[in-house]
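Quarterly update from the structural biology core.
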Amino acid sequence: MSDPASSPAVASWPQAGAVLQLLKPVTWFPPMWAFGCGVVSAGLPIFENWPLLVAGLLLSGPLVCGTSQAVNDWFDRHVDAINEPNRPIPSGRVPGRWGLYIAILWTLLSLIMAALIGPVVFWAAVFGLAAAWAYSAPPFRLKANGWWGNSAVGLCYEGLPWFTGAAALLGGFPPWPILALALLYSIGAHGIMTLNDFKSVAGDTRMGVRSLPVQLGVDGAARVACVVMAVPQAVVIALLAVWGRPYHAAAVAVLLAVQFVMMRRFLGDPSARALWYSGLGVTLYVSGMLVSAFAVSGAAH
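Predicted structure, tokenized:
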């Protein structure tokens, strides 16, 4: 099989539009939303700290998340050349080894931005970037196994940006209620990542990618995804009640109850309804994140 990076290129420089496509702006929203939840949970005036807000949003979305997308496309270039030849790298619109160079450059830019925000944010970015490379690159290639790969993505898309948002505004390590919420919603995000695997069961089986639908079967993976999403939210509800936030706990409980109704329909035909549930159920999930962030807002003061 020929390497797309060594094939004759149509140009020596990547096209600007192709670079943007390589960085996949559509994927930036989840970590930017989680970063916003972290900012809210810090309980400090947002508009008075707008430079940190802007820098953090750039870091969590276009930079770190963009890096992860470039890394993933580079190490998936052989498969994409067969299955999705119109992608930037196999199509030649990002020619030669430019996919790798962009991934390295965006890693460095991410580290510089993180260092400018603060030392705690810098080390969080180091962790996130290391996970991004480990997810796609050998020898780790965590994406080859749904348990490890989905855990890494859930942590880096939800928990780490939440931590970063709080740390950026607080100027240091966030208090444990914020850390608890960030971790719980990261665990639940493992289920969200599983929902994305239902569309590629046949391809994953052929390519030896052990996603949860491949390992457990479609029905088994669907049940696991629902449980993994629901249990952390139930723990969040309990914690909010213990912390004296009954109205916030009730709001998250209502959101979870609606998810239960939708989960029942999803489990009836996981393959056909995964995309439907991913769109609607996940919206309720991330809404609960914001409600929880408001609940602990100011906990550090």
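The chain has a mean pLDDT of 91.
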